[in-house]
Records
---
Amino acid sequence: MKAIATFLFLFIGIAEVLSLSEPLRLVSAFSHITGELDKLSLGNCSLKGLELPLNHTKTRLPGPSSHLSLKFVAIGRGTQNYSCSSSETSSHPKKSSTPVATGAAATLFDASCLASQSLTLLHEFPAAIGHISPGSLAFMAEALTLITNTSELIIGEHYFNTAGDPFFDLSMSGLDMWIDAKKKASVNAPTRVSRSSGKDESDVPWLKLGCKNCKDIQEVYRVLTFEGVAPSTCMGQNDTVLIQYAAEYWFYG
């Protein structure tokens, strides 16, 4: 209970600092999540038998290769990055152009123990964590560390390397595991109804990534995505556009 109280105290403070539109609703959501976490015994972190949530989309991603096993489940929180660079040949470059995807950057939080105990609860995290600003991730990580009795909650980072490939470095887990990935399949994320507006909203696609060059990780899935979609036009945007997102990442090797 002390851990939960600590977490809620931190989260309420974060909500006030960020002037979130619905802080009470978010506090309620995190209160539910932390209450459920408090009921779980997170000492057993076996990932054997866990199945990817691939049935949520109209078109299904291909499953993991049969010879591979699940190594980690993580929650990624960061930004999808886009470019709206000005063109020297257009007098109104940002009125007629659309953002171009240039990569992503995210912190990877270990969710393996949570996945082993409750996939339902795990699937609540991307939307919940998606409301927290990157600047507040350190507070959240510390609070969740207290709740889950995890010594190292952050296990790695995701970014695009100089060759433009999605790269996942899991060395913060204490293991020398990484993957320079390439896209193998992509499907549209399920349509999500906004809690605030009631309108349908889109999230970045779900992906299956394979190994271009890797060590101990050969396939990565991005599922249960939350936000991250580029603006429809570059009108009024900066040259670099960073859109917040969250997702589940499943690592196989």
Note: The longest helix spans residues 2-18.
---
Amino acid sequence: MNMALPRPFPLPARATDEILTRLAALHPKKIDLSLARMGRLLDALGNPERRLPPTIHVAGTNGKGSTIAFMRAMLEAAGQRVHVYTSPHLVRFNERIRLGAPGGGVLVSDAALAEALDRTETANAGQPITLFEITTAAAFLLFAEHPADVLLLEVGLGGRLDATNLVAEPLASVITPVSIDHVDFLGTSVEAIASEKAGIIKPRRPVVVGSQVPEALAVIERAAAKKLAPLFVRGQQWNVSEEAGRLVYADEDGLLDLPRPRLVGPHQIDNAGLAVATLRAVKLPAAHEAGILQADWPARLQRLPSGPLVARAPAGVEVWLDGGHNAAGGAALAHALCELEERYSRPLVLILGMLGTKDVTGFLTPFAGLVREAIAVPVPGEHAGLKPEDVAAAAMGLGMSARVARDVGSALDSITRTSQVPPPRVLISGSLYLAGAVLAANGAEPA
């Protein structure tokens, strides 16, 4: 199986694919942050953003999707119907839009998605608009026209000028940890990026804040003060920690002794705590324990136990997948792998593909001393990926043994093991686009 192909395996043609291809040609730039085009389109659609269920708006650099996954699981376990909007998708565009339903939400159907996209295309009347903007408008239509108790809404990029930021009165704004990423669009300093993220704060609406470096927190606090928005900050109004293998959460309303999340890694303690803090801040019904145990979020330190791609690795090899792609994500992953190493020691092999806009050295630095070998691969599809040779050179610059493979399957084929040590632990990482291709090739499409 050649993972260098634009699509890892043939997918059936769908009307939604044709519509999305057509819509992508409406604006020359894939990313062009602005609220004007989105505002015009929403007006033409009758302003569905004003008819959404109570909305929790989530921005930040890392942990947005996992925090939403925890909130969704906690709310659904309490019987709530929950709409969810996230991006990007891994395998199918439908993953971005989950419609609340009794017993648990479901991904939007091809038919419903195609109908909503057709309506937004008609209303847009051929005017310039980015693909993210017009598909977000379609999502707003679907969310407004299907009943639910809550909408969990993830920012696409930044916050201040993101298409999702036309929701005027969210139930709460959430800001996950802020760090350096997307510098071409958000700025080169933590303060500048935090200012963009804090752009989702609305007047007098609660703001729940995860762990932040002091520079980012100061920016968020100033933005909240200007809007008279009450703050719920980790380390001030609430806290979370791991104690004796349990998650311990505390705020002014009391203490919760909860199980450790099923999602792997110490950073998921932080994400679960932020989810609990948010739902408690807005007084929504939530089954915290059940949600923490049930929450699932693909390609976030996900173990791949079997499948046609995994079968190409030598017997006994552990294969893990994560979409982490920036320096903070690399640090969280390295920490999690150190924890796995303490439980059961295995040589670590890193299979890595990254986009050209990412800081490969910043991502790899936390892995120095942990990795037996790094194997660089291209990111499949039409994405502007770094050359594998450049990724391998960055790894070697950090003292790692590194080489290049033509795709993930070939990298797995080439892994060797000896009888003197346990089979290796393999982490495939560096890009959500790479992660999506791996899931597709392994027959593990998110549901």
Note: The two ends are 23 Å apart (CA to CA).
---
Amino acid sequence: MFDSITGLISQGGYFGILALMLLENLFPPIPSEVIMPLAGFLAARGELNIIGVVIAGTLGSFLGALPWYYAGALLGEKRMRRLAQRYGRWLTISGDDVTEAGIWFRAHGRKAVFFGRLVPAIRTLISVPAGIAHMPFRSFAFYTLAGSAIWTFLLALAGYLLHAEYDRVAEYLDPGSKIVLGVIVLVYLYRLVRNGHALRQR
């Protein structure tokens, strides 16, 4: 699986990284914690440029945040909560997730967008309350790009620096990645069932 994921990124190049990071913000088929380090591996092998990897990852993350920002701005908190309660189970989010992200945003202001991009649990959802609060787009774009750039740089750098241990990492990551993938699927199914159960109780 290690080779299959690196092969996917290698074939897609910078556009592939951008697309995967965009999707990671909408529906995470592969988390950024896997995408960017493996892209860093490929950069260390000379297949990609590390700067290009970071730029592609940052841009993909930024573009993936835009639909959530505009959804929050156009729909408002109440309708976003209703939509999350009704359809969010397929994206493994709930109305409570929207509310918690809003509370976090109101407590920290614009800084929440920057620091939120560095926190896996709220990286995606922090864009929703920013839109709901009608945060100026320029400010939203600046903080989102800045936070995303740091996040993608650190992940890509980790993969780049571990290149010397590529074979050893691959040896352990390949069977381990199957376990991780299994856990991701199980967590997704659990949240799917949990959110569906919560909906039935309302």
Note: Residues 110 and 139 are 8 Å apart (CA to CA).
---
Amino acid sequence: MRIGEIAALVGVSTRAVRHYHHVGLLPEPERRPNGYRAYTVRDAVQLARVRRLTELGLGLDEVRDVLADDAGRDLAEVLRELDADLARQEAELAERRRRLAVLLAAGPGDGEPVSPALAALLAKAPATDSPAAAKDREHLTLLDATGAAGEELYSVLGPLAADPAVLALYERLDELAGAAVDDPRIGPLAEAMVAAVPDEAFAAIPSDGPVIPGFGEALLAEYAPAQAEVVRRVMAAFTAEGRA
């Protein structure tokens, strides 16, 4: 094989091949009488291992150490290892495609990279222009990305997301955008929001404080004063031993 052929076979650039020669990760092959390098299957295996190790995040010095430890191994053993690694990558790719299919089927709306479980939950919610509902979705997306919320919580919130009465609660929260912090609507709305949450959801939420340090304060800062007071009371119920 010539340099362009081995590069295409392994999936790297010819520039990368030459660089690996330069730093000593890939031995220079013998040259034909015409001056071209003649690469073997062994060279391709070595180059594939270099690529795999660098894709795993190893630096070139670390790759060199790994390759030194593997020196002298039987070619068939190395090929079997590479085959097993390719099988693992195929399985990971299949799982990623499965997750993508769930997201596409759920139709989260704006293409947010959320988990399939959250995408399925959001798909149950009715379409709305409510700013409060949009904020709630953003907060769920953040918790989802950090792993602070999971399938158990999303499962019990399913009926809640599909309930039209919940949309009415969001709209009531929107109405408090310009209200004072002592507005008489604050208490009843907070109580209604807490009452709407299933007992199973409270059980699925940690009771020892915010799941992310500083998240509560940052969340409240996004709301107008009266709205923030409603949300604060709801959050207090979520983090208390039972309902507030």
Note: Residues 75-106 form the longest helix (32 residues).
